[in-house]
Amino acid sequence: MNVVRTLFALGLMIGCAQGAQASLLDQVQKRGFLICGSNPGVPGFGLPDDKGGWTGFDVDFCRAVAAAIFNDPTKVKFIALSAKDRFTALQSGEVDLLSRNTTWTLSRETGQGFLFAGISYYDGQGFLVRKKLNLSSALELSGASICVQQGTTTELNLADFFRGNNMKYEPVNFANAEEAVRAYEGGRCDAYTTDASGLYVERQRLTDPEDSVVLPEIISKEPLGPAVRQGDDEWFNLVKWTLYALVNAEELGVNAKNVDEKAKSDRPEVRRLLGFEGNFGEGLGLGADWAYRIVKHVGNYGEIFDRNLGEGSPLKIKRGINALWTKGGLQYAPPIR
């Protein structure tokens, strides 16, 4: 009987302790701003200027989350994180959200305690080489020295590619992408490898971009997306549905310029998205207009893509498989209903 009472009392104590612990959304709201881990060195995805202002595709996603919570996309503090430090920062609680061109893998969820909130950008790894080598395929790189950033899936994919094709290579490892690219440009290696999107970014930053070419092979799947810590379903759902709201808004033709006009729409899907039919924000711990706030302040998925990576940016990256599913791409979001 005493054992039963003891276990019951222990259960009450644990329950009270868990109840007393504020959710991450509560903490963020009380703090007054979101803390987002971002990449400080990839134009188009994440890059601070000399005044501390940040721009990029992943940066705008954090602003979308802030807009949903605060109705203010500026209520974000960005923390610059290297590939090596990004997971420790998320695990320790230094950041609330990691939005830093990070690949979704099994081991990162089951072994490191993260959850990926979806795929914001479909990518794949490739190779940048000098034109003078006269290479037309990555299969001609046997014996080559390859500059690569350590502590990334890029490093692992590189090893898999060469082993799978019975080829030898010399890895030249660096702590960050900037060092790796500088070494490539300085002639320390024959090729540089990273996600294809990054190759086009880095090629543009070379002293003479025309001296290098991106080889045609894509050697891996790199589904990039925002990640959160496990254990807080409310926060996970909020981040996940922010991404889905962006995609749904583009599919429904709702953008930053016409969102107020669309608010008058009779279409049920649009009315649910913008909070005029049902209160779907309640399940996220937010107001009914949470998605309206996102689109009003940050735009839809297509707008974010275009200004940071696409035709409205210096990179001019084609949508490709990142187009909506209705236009031949892979971007597809569950309905808000």
Mind explaining what this structure looks like?
By secondary structure, the chain is of the alpha/beta class. 39% of the residues lie in helices and 15% in strands. The protein has helices spanning 2-20, 24-31, 57-70, 86-92, 106-110, 153-164, 177-185, 196-205, 233-251, 259-262, 268-274, 290-298, 301-308, and strands at 34-38, 47-48, 54-55, 76-80, 97-98, 114-116, 121-123, 125-130, 145-149, 170-174, 191-195, 212-214, 222-224, 227-229. It is globular and about 60 Å long. The N and C termini lie far apart (49 Å). Mean pLDDT is 92; it is low at 1-20.
- Spell out the helices and strands N to C: HHEEEHEHEHEEEEHEHEHEEEHHHHH
Give the strand order of the largest sheet, numbering strands 1, 2, ... along the chain.
10-9-11-8-12
Number of strands: 14
Overall pLDDT score: 92
Short description:
This protein has 337 residues and is of the alpha/beta class. The protein is 39% helix and 15% strand.
List keywords for this structure.
about 15% strand, single chain, three-stranded parallel sheet, alpha/beta, 13 helices, about 40% helix, about 325 residues, disordered N terminus
Question: Layout of helices and strands, plus pairs?
Answer:
Blueprint: H1 2-20, H2 24-31, E1 34-38, E2 47-48, E3 54-55, H3 57-70, E4 76-80, H4 86-92, E5 97-98, H5 106-110, E6 114-116, E7 121-123, E8 125-130, E9 145-149, H6 153-164, E10 170-174, H7 177-185, E11 191-195, H8 196-205, E12 212-214, E13 222-224, E14 227-229, H9 233-251, H10 259-262, H11 268-274, H12 290-298, H13 301-308
Parallel strand pairs: 1-4, 1-5, 9-10, 9-11
Antiparallel strand pairs: 2-3, 6-14, 7-13, 8-11, 8-12
